[in-house]
Amino acid sequence: MDRGVIILEATIAQAADGWRVDRALADAVPTLSRERLKVLINAGQVSQGDTAMRDPSRKARGGERFAVAVPAPTPAHNEAQDIPLVVAFEDEHLIVIDKPAGLVVHPAAGNLDGTLVNALLHHCHGSLSGIGGVARPGIVHRIDKDTSGLMVAAKTDRTHEGLAKQFAAHSIDRRYRAIVGGRPMPAAGSVDAPLARSPNNRKKVAIVQGGKRAVTHYRTLELLRDATLVECRLETGRTHQVRVHMASIGHALLGDPVYGRTKHAHKQVLDTLNFRRQALHAAHLGFVHPITGETLGFDSAMPPDMQELFSQLIV
């Protein structure tokens, strides 16, 4: 047997009788997504006895048995690095991380290593079954480098697909804590404004007619000294969404170097604390586990730097 191939035995459930065979196999093999199985079927990697099956649309029969030949995942292009992680939850399917401010999520120009992906490749070594055939964590959402808090990553192809569907359906419960300038009026409300790259500065995001729909629901948690601690619940998850939306209603995040205009009094506090980031923390993450169906919810307290800023601004 080819050591680079893993053979999975799969039996079609009686309840899946009459389904497309790619769908029925996805039900029988919890680590592989339907799209991945479709690719394997078309490549002749799914067989009954000595006969390869190459039609993912043919009807399955309950009780049928298949052998699925899955090539061992190829190594990820990025380097695994031993970077400490705070793990809020982990099983064989996914991992929830409490990301510190300052950690980039994904390697890119200017940040080719030292990222969350590098850290996950090390932490999850041996438990990544492959996303699209590559042994890598499935990143389905991101948090800005200088934003702290909770995010989830998939270990398997099936989990990645299931999480991606929930994000696309806007069913993920994401709530941020932010310290903003001034006092929003009304104390709770929504910002429904489309976002896209700014036509004047490609490094910034702006409210642009024709951009992607973006909705943020905010509510006041505590009044501070010419500032407010707010909760922002994301209906959508666009790049810089909370930062742009809150700035658009005149309440930019304290410390935001891109979208904020810091008042003198706040600047003194920020300088004293050496607070050099937007005051934004992903405090709650909730979703349905794509494999077990369990509803999961996680909470993260504000990190020490943001807690200290909050304390300095208490009225």
From TrEMBL:
Classify the source by domain of life: Bacteria
Extract the GO molecular function terms from the UniProt entry: 23S rRNA pseudouridine(1911/1915/1917) synthase activity
* Keywords, in A-Z order: Isomerase, RNA-binding
Catalytic activity of the protein:
uridine(1911/1915/1917) in 23S rRNA = pseudouridine(1911/1915/1917) in 23S rRNA; a uridine in RNA = a pseudouridine in RNA
Which Pfam family would be a valid example here? PseudoU_synth_2
Residue span of the signal peptide, if any? none
Q: Which positions, given as ranges, span the membrane? A: none
Keyword Isomerase among record annotations: yes
Q: Which InterPro entries does the entry mention?
A: PsdUridine_synth_cat_dom_sf, PsdUridine_synth_RluA-like_CS, PsdUridine_synth_RluC/D, PsdUridine_synth_RsuA/RluA, RluA_PseudoU_synthase, S4_RNA-bd_sf
**SUPFAM superfamilies the UniProt entry points to:** Pseudouridine synthase
Function according to Swiss-Prot or TrEMBL? Responsible for synthesis of pseudouridine from uracil.
This protein is called what? Answer: Pseudouridine synthase
Species of the source: Sphingomonas endophytica
